Amino acid sequence: MFKANRLALAVAAVSLSAGVFAAPAGTLATVNGVAIPAARADLFVKDLAQRGQKDTPELRAKVKDELIKNEVVYQEALKKGVEKNPDLIAQMEMMKQRLVIGAFVSQYVKANPITDAEVRKEYDKIKVNFGGKEYKARHILVATEPEANAILADLKKGKKFEDLAKDKSMDKGSGSNGGDLGWANPNNFVKEFSEAMTKMPKGKISEKAVKTQFGFHIIKVDDVRDAKGPSYEEVKPQLEQQMQAQRIQKMVEDLVAKAKIAE
Questions:
Q1: Model confidence pLDDT, tens digit, residues 154-166
Q2: Span of the secretion signal (predicted)?
Q3: At what angle are helices 161-168 and 145-156 packed, to 10 degrees?
């Protein structure tokens, strides 16, 4: 009990000597008589939490310390008249405008949400473009035509395409997988490669090397299927974001159209 009383007296003595007094309710601390609102700390912590930090007493203690330091430096800057600098005033006005615009747009988005029905309607409109074919192809890429011809000769002798791709292809990404390029839309490839691939029957190897900007390709078509396209669930987030951006743009354009602008 005696030790506890001594500790309490010591803390009180340090507090008084430092000029720190009990802060009013709703106040985090006071610095030279200026109150730091507790709400400011809450906002600070909320921002950090959104970035992945956990709201803990330790984090709040660090935030409090940081806000006190900020207030001390801010008060000193005011004493020096820094806030009267014309460039700084212009920057603060711009920052204020951005913050207000950001808050306004956030309110607009909440008040005008994109509904699931609207997103599904948009998905149905673009779904018609998902047609066509997809190809599961392999290739072996080399630098010169003689190298490609030598590989074609090896294939005719019975050597496996996959083994030659691993040993000879400059495309190490697909080469390590036997030249496998996976399922893809022809539009994903350069024109010369795409045109040659789409003319080949399933299971066949190109009779001659296909020249592109990357070198000489020997192509094998493993399979062909009708293109499925992404599902509604896969594209819904991107569609929502795109439609919301379009709605915001329309709102801004309407405001500009109504505004009286003089130059």
A1: 999 999 999 999 9
A2: 1-22
A3: 150
Query: Mean pLDDT over residues 174-183, rounded?
Result: 96
Position 24 scores a pLDDT of 52
As a dihedral over the C-alpha atoms of residue 101, residue 103, residue 109, residue 110, rounded to 10 degrees, the angle is -160
Which CATH topology does 132-226 take? Chitinase A; domain 3 (3.10.50)
Strand pairing category for 215-226 and 210-212: antiparallel
Report whether 181 contacts 169 (CB < 8 A): no
Q: What is the residue whose two structure tokens read 């390590």?
A: 176
Amino acid at 13: A
Residue 130 CA to residue 83 CA, distance in Å, equals: 58
Q: How far apart are CA 140 and CA 193, in angstroms?
A: 12
Domain boundaries, the chain: 16-110, 132-226
Residue with tokens 């615009």: 101
What is the mean predicted confidence (pLDDT) over 220-246? 92
Q: Look up residue 96 and give its two tokens.
A: 């204020």
Distance (Å, rounded) from C-alpha 244 to C-alpha 242? 5
The span from the CA of 37 to the CA of 60, in Å, is: 14
Give the DSSP H/E element, type plus range, for residue 221. strand 215-226
Q: Does the reported pTM lie above 0.70? A: no
d(CA 130, CA 135): 14
Q: Is residue 220 within a helix (H) or strand (E), and if so which, with residue range?
A: strand 215-226
